Structures are given as C-alpha cells and as structure tokens.
Model the fold of this input.
Amino acid sequence: MKLFLFQTGVLKCRENDIKMNASQEPYEIPVPWFLITHPKGNIIVDGGNAVECASNPREYWGDICDIYLPEMKIEEGCLNTINRVGIDPNSIKFVLQSHLHLDHTGAIGRFANATHIVHRKEYEYAYTADWFAKSGYIRADFDRPNLDWNFLDIYNHDVYDVFGDGCVLIIPTPGHSPGHCSFVVNLPQSGSVILTCDAVYTQDHWEDKALPGFLTSAQDTVRSVAKLKAIAKRTNALVVMGHDPVSWVDMKKGAMGFYE
Ligand SMILES: [Zn+2]
Done:
C-alpha cells in the first residue's frame, strides 16, 4: 500500500482568499490530489482541477478565474498523470471526494470502473449552493451520465472505512462546505497520514490563527479543525493540508516520492 501526492499546478489568488482578513497581496497555492494503491483496488482522492483548465480555464470555470486563476499543464491532469506513472486507469476502484469544489473534481467520470464516494449533503449542496458559493461548483464536472455514486450519510464522530480494513477512513469535516470530508490513510511504515483537504487550508488555519478565506459555517469549520487535531494527536499523524504553499514544499511528491 502506497500514498502518492500529486498536484494540478497552482491557483493564483490573493492572500485574503485563503486567510480571512489577510492582505490583498498576490498568493499562490498548490492544488493537491492523491493516489492510494491498495491490494483490493486503487483510489484517487479528489483529482485536482479538470484537465480542461490547462487549455482554457476561463471557458471552463467562468468568472471565478478573476479570483482563482488556475495554472496547470495538460500532463498534470489526473488521468494523464495516472497513465504517465504506469497505473492502469481501470484499476481505479474508488474516487473519493472531500467535496465538490472546482479544484477537487478532476477525477470524476474519468475512470470507467470507479465508484465515486461523496457525502450526500455535499452532492445536494453542489446543485443548490447559496449565491456566494455557487461559482465554486462546476456542474460539468459532476453532473455526468452513468456515474456510479456512493452517497455517505455520516455525521459527527462517524467514520466510513473504505475497504473495511482500517487502511482508508473517511471522516466528516463540514464547515468549508456543508458535506466536506477528510481522510485518514494508515500506512504500514509511515503510519497515519491525514489528508485534511479543505478542512484545513494552511498552517495558520491549523493553528487557529486564521479562518479560511472561504467557508459556509465558521463554527463547523473551527470544530472540524479541532476534530482533526485530536486525531493527529492520538495517532501522531503526518498532516497534509489542503492548500498550504509552505508545508507542501517539504512533502514527498510525484511518482518517486510516495509514502508507504
Ligand atoms: Zn474547497
């Protein structure tokens, strides 16, 4: 079993888009996504931006490019990366979605044998988002025919165990979006790794020094960080944050830099 960290380039934005009430200075964040190889089948977590953003982001994402401008290469697209590193796309059994924001949906519908797992609340909200959240959901990414979905109804301290063996756990962490979930990957040598996804944007957010620049519930956001901190403390986990330009530099990334 291995965990690989990839990214679909960066988003160019301003600091206060990522840290509430911070400066208007330009700020650049990585767009991570993950591959987990497992004897029972391989998993993509999120999938970054849709590959369409490599050629014409404004056509695909619309005016939200004024706030978050994606910069990625075609070869960084999720399916292109999987092919490039020699993983059979048909071996992808699950696509796990932390949530359905546009910089996380690049794997949906790209893997023929995959079941897509997302919190039911997130899926419903993606179609019924409030005015301030609407532009973060690109319907073309998730409103596709013949997708195999598994909608989770998990709350509070529920945990969904993907293979039933404790290796990949889904934890509800709402706040950034109504149905946001994070992931705990338990590896034989590296131990526990928490993929917070957007439940924790940056180190400042993790340390209760800043709220994220986007959320649907401040209270849930803060409580989800507290929940993940408790898990990290209990398991001595490596914490991989959602869009932290600083700690991302030191992570093992790409096909050669996996955790196992
Ligand atoms: Zn998000």
About this structure: Residues 2-250 form a domain with the Metallo-beta-lactamase; Chain A fold (CATH 3.60.15.10). The CA atoms of residues 12 and 69 lie 5 Å apart. Residues 99, 101, 176, 198 surround zinc ion (CB under 6 Å).
